[in-house]
Amino acid sequence: MRALARDARALLATEIRVRVRSVLADRRKLLGTATSLAMFGLLFPWFFRANVTSFAERVAGGNVPLGPLGAAFTGLCVLGLTVGASTGFGQERAGRVGPLVRTSVPPLAVSLARLASEVLRGLTVFALPAVAVLVFLGAGSGGPVLPLVLATGALPLVLTGLLVGRLAGDAVRYLNLAVGVSLWVKAAAAVVVSLAFFVGTQALLFAETADSGGNGANGDTGSPLASVSIPPLLPGEPLQAYAGVVSSPVGGSPRALGWAVGALLLAAVPVALVVALRVETRLLFREVSGDRAGDGVAGTSGVPRPFTVGPGPRVAWRYLLRTRRDPRILSHLMIVLFMGIGSLGNVVQDPGSITGIGPPVAVIGGAVIAGAAYCMNPLGDDVDQLPLLLTSADSTDLLLRGRALAGAAIGLPLALGAGVPLAAIGRSPVFAAWLAVLAVALVFAGTGAALGLGALVPKFERYEYMSVERPHPSNYVVFGYLIGTMLVGGLGFALVDRSASGGAGALVGVAWTVYLGVVGGVGLAGYVYARRRFDDLSLDEF
Amino acid sequence: MSEPSTSPNADGSPALSARGLTKRYGSTTAVDSLDLTVDPGVVFGFLGPNGAGKTTTMRIFTGLIDPTSGEARVAGVPSRDRARLVDRIGLLPEEPPLYDELTGREQLQFAADLRDVRWDAVSDRALGLCGDLDLTGDLDRRIEGYSKGMRQKTAFVQAVQHDPAVVFLDEPTSGLDPRAAKTLRELILDLAESDTTVFLSTHILPVVEEIADEVGVLHEGRLVAEGPIEELVASAGAGDSDGAAASTADDAGAGTVDGGASPADDPDLEDAFLELTSREESVWTDDT
């Protein structure tokens, strides 16, 4: 047992050292990490400072608001579940370290070290806010007792959430690797599950809000937290009871149910840890079929029309072909899916709304996908092929054009094929015609702008995201592009609306000219910048 | 070190030339004042211990990185002029740059598209090479299912299908079975016969000995020897007045795994290589 702990500790220390060094050695990573820590560590706690301090003052005054406390505990539990599940699903595959660790370290030690390092990494970003919240609690209550009591009580919740979530993530990861269906079926299943989760959550939220009327039932009306919409969503009773037990040293009223929940949590931690370690150790050595979906598949695909018209379109076709064979190339678009899933949820709940929200969502979504699909990390995600690309094409212009066209080939059909007909049905043919102009402008300008953004922050190193290890685009860049396109698309949509209503002809004409000039200019500038940047690319850069 | 050759090619330039080529990474000098000239149609074996700077030199010649100082030219075109350079070169790096999701045929067609060359124009040559390398039957399978050797063959065809003036090959026989390796060596000789210059970087000295016309030995970033193999081997066989070098060569001979003849009896390229690189190490050690 001691040897096991020693091996696990050694692996964990090595893993942490490697991670820290990789961040410190890369200015861009360091900046990204510092930004994340600042955002979560400073802004987030500052936003909730008044609520937390007010809560602590009420506790100090002898009134423990169990509703908000139970909700906060539930939130911590959900946080643990999320971090655990995401690390379990997205953990790096055993293959990369397998040959070494399999022959030199006991498997259980490997599992233990991996679990610890990945969970620690997942929680790092929450460390600062946690400290800040504890400080606010201490400041509000006038002493260290309240933060100490709550931190102690929260620990079993977070740990249970982490370990149960980890088990769930392991199960999904294993299914993902072992189930012998096509990658497209898996992708579709992921979308359906995400959508079902979102719609289900929304339904629960609305139902509970209607039934509970917020926190009033817990006597918390007037509390700053009463306006927070989370509590009605959460299963309050057992965790409120647990909150009563935890807060008993500072005036809370414990109940039998709370003691039972506490005992359950304390028992769950070691049990879940043992089960998670056993499962992961088995997975470490279990051979699975993996995702080499094309292994042994025969058949060369010719370039179809209209992609035969030149080298740029032919290159574009290769990107599309590769994606058709392996949709994981677009795994970075999950963030776009998560952003758009709200609209899909609304349509599922109210099918009649599709003609209203459908056109803007389709046009803006089409532009987002056109840019984000292949242009957010141009050449970065071709890092292994750069020796070929840079010694074959006389300019990266060809590759960039190919990427832009490939993106447009996906985005334009969505924007024109879905957005315009829906607009014709829901609004008018004139509106639909103006929308078509907007769609074309946004899609092509979007690809250019995305190329520029991708060239500004290229990512050449591989990392695992959504269980896919490759050089993914920067999440900040994807997110920034998404928000920017939504804003620019929103403006365009207002212009379309104004144009279709037939008001102020000259003014609308000027507005269109300015709008298209700016949007087109940004797209062109992005494209030109990307070409210059990558024509001068050197392998020394990474 | 031999004088740089002045043999011209069709447009009067040597196939490869480097003048004072230097590449530094911080305080480390990867390539140090390299002067080199290679004539057209020559198979040039580029040798050196691990970390000697061979890949860095190859990357500079192919425009993948810029030198810190000095100049490299390929068929008269400066290596920094990537737009013109790509017409003249083909590259097989150590890791074959292929897309797993494509079939072998699609990969070769893609490589032609990158050069804006019609597939029809190169397909005969490409498919002929695939036939020679026993790859034809696998061309319509996806590359993700290829063995290491099949990847290497595909990448080789990709590097030469457009008939470049200079081909850079980094460990081209890596992962190939003996039959395929032999075929590849023959194909390299065919390339040279058709006036293509082959810049061959490898650790497998018998391969170089068999097919290279000239060799250059790089050690700690410096070109310590250059010329026809026979001259290098002869100089090794003749021994050296430098006591340190002679003793190092003896040591190297004593350490030969196959227990063959000592360098003094029957010197070969391996002996010459070991002597050259050992001599430099001895000099370096003495200096420090």
Quick rundown:
The complex is a heterodimer of chains A (542) and B (288). By secondary structure, chain A is mainly α.
Percent of residues in helices of chain B: 25-40%
What would you call the structural class of chain B? alpha/beta
Strand segment tally of chain B: 10
The rounded distance between the terminal residues' Cα atoms of chain A is 42 Å
- Describe the global form of chain B: globular
- Sketch the topology of chain B as an H/E string, one letter per element: EEEHEEHEHHHEHEHEEHHH
Question: What's the average pLDDT of chain A?
Answer: 82
Unreliable stretches of chain B (pLDDT < 50, length at least 5) are 1-8, 240-264, 282-288
Strand neighbour order, sheet with most strands of chain B: 6-7-8-3-9-10
Strand order of the largest sheet of chain A: 1-2
Describe the protein in words:
The complex is a heterodimer of chains A (542) and B (288). Chain A has 542 residues and is mainly α. Chain A has 17 helices and two strands. A two-stranded antiparallel sheet of chain A has the order 1-2. Chain A is globular and about 75 Å long. Chain B is an alpha/beta fold. In chain B, the strands form two sheets. A six-stranded mixed sheet of chain B has the order 6-7-8-3-9-10, sandwiched between helices. Chain B has a four-stranded antiparallel sheet with strand order 2-1-4-5. The radius of gyration of chain B is 20 Å and the shape is globular. The interface between A and B is large, with 37 and 41 residues.
